[in-house]
Amino acid sequence: MLWNYLTVALRNIARHKLYSFINIAGLTVGLTCAIFIILFVRDQLSYDTWIPGTENLYRVENNFTLPGRPPMPSTKTPFVVTQAMLDQIPEVKTRTRLIRNAVSMRAGNRQFPEKVASVDPNFFQVIRLPLVAGDPATVLAQPDSVVISEAKARKYFGAAPALNRILTLSAQYCDEEGNNCQSRQHDLRITGLVRDLPHNTQMSADLLISNIANSDPTPPDAKTNWFHTEGWGYVQLVPGADPKAVTAKLRALLDRSVNLKALKLNIPTSQVMIPRLTRFRDAHLSTDQYGGMTPAGNWPTVYGFAAIGVLILMVACFNFTNLATARAMTRAREISLRKVVGATRRQLMFQFLGEAVLTALIALALALALAEMLLPSFDRFLGLPIAFHYFRDWPVSLSIITIGLLVGLLSGAYPALILSGFRPIAALRSNASRQSGSGLLRTLLVVLQFAVSIGLGIAVLVVFAQISFARDVDLGFHKDGILVMDGQNLSAGSRESFVRALKVNSGIADAAISDSQSIPFTGSDNNLDVSLPGSSTSQVLRVMSTGPDYANVYGIKLIAGRFLSDGHSGDRVTDQRGSWVDYRSAPYNIMINEAAAHRLGLSKTDAVGKTLTAHGVPVTIVGVIADVKIDGAAAAIMPTIYRYIPEFSSWISVSVRPVHLPDTLSFIDRTWHAFAPGTAMRRYFLNDDFEGQFRADEQQGTIFGIFVSIAIFIAALGLFGLAAFSSQRRTREIGLRKAFGARSRDIVLMLLWQFSIPVLIANFIAWPVAYYYLHHWLEGYAYRIDLNPLYFLGAGLAALIIAWTTVFAHAQRVARTNPIHALRYE
Q1: How many CB atoms lie within 10 A of CB 569?
Q2: What confidence tier does 433 reach under pLDDT thresholds 50, 70, 90?
Q3: What is the pTM of this model?
Q4: Out of 85, 94, 381, 561, which residue is the most buried by the measure of CB atoms under 10 Å away?
């Protein structure tokens, strides 16, 4: 019997080529999408699961909520916090920390700009990254030792052994208060090799040194200041410990240890620096977007991809169900004869379910072949080395096969019920059986197919419209032709001399020094408490250190007063003591932006000349400058103070002219090496950084575009097949209409209207769902487009045109049929 079922199924596939092609093509495309989505979801869920012993490991993070400022979630935590947790919270078994610093590394006579990770000596015991050489317990125990990755070993030494070789680290080292910085060099011995980390990890660790060694360039202030959050801290809890209880104890610890009265904030510290513990294995998808070491993922993307995969498969299943019920009448006699000779309904259902599963398995085989061919392109598009091995990844293979079987069963279940329910007498009496399944169900399935397609189409339009808007929004400063350089390895005096040396070149329009917070799109943020004279409360404003030519380099407009200048002695901060929130100095002058004037309750013109208190130091406003969107279109403009502290201004911005750009860059490189012969240069163009902001959104928009194309393709395939069967079923009706005077145009319009109704209904389903999703997505941008009705109408009209194009050929062919032949039908 099984052989008979298989033979009949194969004959049906071969005999009804159009029907078979539509079903198999739709299921193949849908299953291919499902395979890629499964691989992507598996990759995202695999982050850090391969690192052993992380079951009770958590990353200590903070959500800073300063008065008058939106919450600022961060993955980083002050260096001292995890040590205090180890000392005062019994549930904490151990801790380890990591801070990354920009340095220059020399191997022989070659120099490389690098990021070195300063870690606790127990780092490899807590986070057990795979060591190729070295003992995790002792690899960082020796002074001035370094652990490097296999990739760095190949970069520095080629195929030669790297263990026990010497690298020379050059970095800027400052005093206890973060001042008087000088460039020094340290020889480091390679004591361990770590295996190159796979892409699915939150860690970035190619060069690691001990944070208690003399070679550690981390400023001493960063290791003692409770408000310095430049590194990541991890704690391992004892088995069975409750992370929520540990977080509650950490809040109490912060309230005991940190006093905010110096900032004129009469609230508990734990309400300003709200701590949280994030499970190590969950960090990539939950909080890495707030300052992780590697590109972050997020749960909405994973859920969204999974939902789209389900929707695409549903569209393909709807096709199968629709076409199977539509062509039921062509199998009425076959089914009736089987019943007459003794076939039971259960046997018939088994036969038709088997045919559906066979079709799905054929589609699955084609989908696997298609996925194999497209996988390299998929990897390049995502920028991830996603691989698929049938036997090694047997859980994934089993999942894909299971999905293929479920697709066959789900798509064939309803047709099997309909087909097996035919009554033999009615079917054998006439060839024009009307037992062809529910027309209402077929209409509903078409509606759902196009609702999915229209919703995704609206998303594509809105995503790319927002990206275009964000690219073209007026940022308030110049971003083109700006070269940014890291000057941390130069002393404050050398940086100023370096800038003066650059300005003599005709290819350089201007150059200026500043801190990292004033470099656009870095996401860095420093804050300062500011109060008006006589006020008992303070405002927490963003603070930046910028040189006199900063506004000229970036083309920032002056609203009132003047820019900071070397020609005014009070503009340059002198007699500085301490750093960060402990900073003290003689009175100095500042600029503020328009948002800061508004926050302080001052008009733009009246603000000039006003004296404020900035963390206990009198400061005078000498200028008000225009607001600039330094964080791009995603973030709102923050009230900002601009001051000029050469010691803190370790970054250099250069406005280069496009003419003879290679010669200008060569001049900059030569000048740098004249000032810093032992240090490699780190530089990039600001516009490249700006474009990087949109990479994830563009990728999401492109993915939506691909999925909407696939959904429309599958829906159009189904509509094409449905139109063919519908036209065939209505041959006699159309012949009668023409015999009574209906024109071909009337027939075409009637058929087009018939298939337009489901698409129009689909619009009213897709529009509110798309609006809800996109409204929340756009809230991630401070400056965003409006959800113009044209996006919704455009996607709906496009779907309608596709539907008309799909069924027009059938409608025209049937409308032109001679009514004599139509009335002789059957």
Answers
A1: 10
A2: very low
A3: 0.83
A4: 85
